[in-house]
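Lab notebook, bench 4. Still working through the backlog of constructs that have no structural model yet. Next entry is a single chain of 336 residues. Request: give me the structure tokens for it.
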Amino acid sequence: PRVNLFQAQALANMGKTEEAIKAILLTSQNPALEKDRLALLAQLYSRTERYTEAINSYKKALALTPEGENRSKLEFEMVRLLIQQSLFLEAEGILEDLIKRGLTDPQLWLELGKAQEGSRHYSKAVASLQNILDQEPDNMEANYYLASSLRNLGRKEEAIDRMNNLLILTKTVPDFSSSDIQHYRGRFIQFLGALYQETGQHQKAIDLLQRLCIDQPDNLQAKLSLVYALKDGNQLEDAQLLSLALLEAAPKDSSVIITHARILAYSGELDKAVELLRAGLQNEPTSESENKKSEHFYLSVGQLYSKHWQYEQARNILQQGLYHYPTRQSLIFHLG
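Model written out:
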């Protein structure tokens, strides 16, 4: 068994992930090695975006891992997947326990802030994120999530100030033109644009996002954000034209489909919007990504019906979604 496990690790190191998974599954169980086998399997499932299987493998590995034997590292790896899968309350509990056990890594506080924001414990999130910023005032992610929590507490002007300062900060880093920094800037600008929209500063949002689309012409999310900014700024015809152009360019992209459906519904074509979502998103899930698409169908249609005061239809479609995805917090929240 040990040789097989080493072979699996070697395959993983060479990037042969599926072969490594097969090798691990073929490895006969050995109590002395089982926690290592499960931990490696979890990492490989995560690499292939099979997140549910990854989380389950982490939990099995942790059940066999005593305190002090790399347990905290495994818990932290699992927590990141829990947050990615919107299982915020579970992640929050694990992170709080890690901190109570004396771990002081700022990254723990960052992930805790994310989990607390996701579970709508915004005041707790502000405190956790401020804890990092007291040590690392230029931590970009902590500043971003703090601004997000401030927004959700209704402190939007504070959030705007923090995001503007954060964008100035991104210009001071030595590798400003790197793809990572440009990715951060794109994400930050879109969030600032949303804040401008929510505070009635629509033209500021449009101008900001139009500049981003020029600077980053391949940034699809920036273009989608611009669609919403144009709609909210009473430039519906421009929003419709941009939304349709994006759908023609990327007809299978979930975010594009959802955005165009929302524009159709806003333009008075609700039935057409629902049919677009049904054709583009509802399918038999054959992978984690297809699973997510199908989940988005139920949530998106439920939101559209609710937004247009068709509450019975909204409740029915969300209940159907919960039948297929009973643990999804987003579906539970909107049904509530």
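Notes after review: DSSP finds 19 helices and no strands in the chain. The mean pLDDT is 87. Flag for follow-up if needed.
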